[in-house]
Amino acid sequence: MTRVNWCSEDDPWGQSDTDYFPPRVSRQKPAWLTQHPELNDYIQLFEEIYTALHADSRRLAMMGARAVIDLAVARMLGNDPGNFAAGMNGLVTAKRLTQEERELIDAAFDAGSAAMHRGHQPAVDDVNTAIDIVERVIHAEVLKKKAKALAAATPKRPPRETKTKEKKDAK
């Protein structure tokens, strides 16, 4: 739905204001988020992020994304690293993150910091990119657990016969 606000008495030649419902930045919560009890630490934060997105409160959504990243880093390390850089360095050193993954997370974290500390109003695409990155980080936790379950449930390949035995059988 779109609502256009215009008043000829205020400014007969002026631009109208357009509001969109839901806002263009809004997005649906991923189904995997609420299907995994191990994500309970994140669920309330994500609820608030999606509420902020639906209200077109992009700064608040970015601040929430930054909070999710802080929580994820602490959970991956098993303790509070003290600051973000130390946490990321610890994850890269422990080979829990690649340098490419770190660069993605750094970008989202920095955007959240800019919204929080410098009053930055991110563009719609920038908010969506940051939320994509944050969802990816958390979804990786889910996939790690699901991959272990999948590997355990997959029947193992039977051992192959050796080539020397095949040659003897052929004679």
Account of the protein in words:
This protein is mostly helical and 171 residues long. It has one domain (25-144). It has helices at 31-34, 40-54, 58-77, 84-93, 99-117, 124-153, 163-170; strands at residues 2-5, 17-20. It has a two-stranded antiparallel sheet. Helix 3 (58-77) crosses helix 4 (84-93) and helix 5 packs antiparallel against helix 6 (124-153). The protein is elongated, with a radius of gyration of 24 Å. It starts with a strand and ends with a helix. The model has no long low-confidence stretch (mean pLDDT 87).
Describe this protein with a few key phrases:
single chain; two-stranded antiparallel sheet; elongated; mainly alpha; 7 helices
Task: Summarize it.
This protein has helices at residues 31-34, 40-54, 58-77, 84-93, 99-117, 124-153, 163-170, and strands at 2-5, 17-20.
Low-pLDDT residue spans: none
pLDDT averaged residue by residue? 87
Integer tally of domains: 1
Helix content: 55-70%
Chart the SSEs and their pairings:
Elements: E1 2-5, E2 17-20, H1 31-34, H2 40-54, H3 58-77, H4 84-93, H5 99-117, H6 124-153, H7 163-170
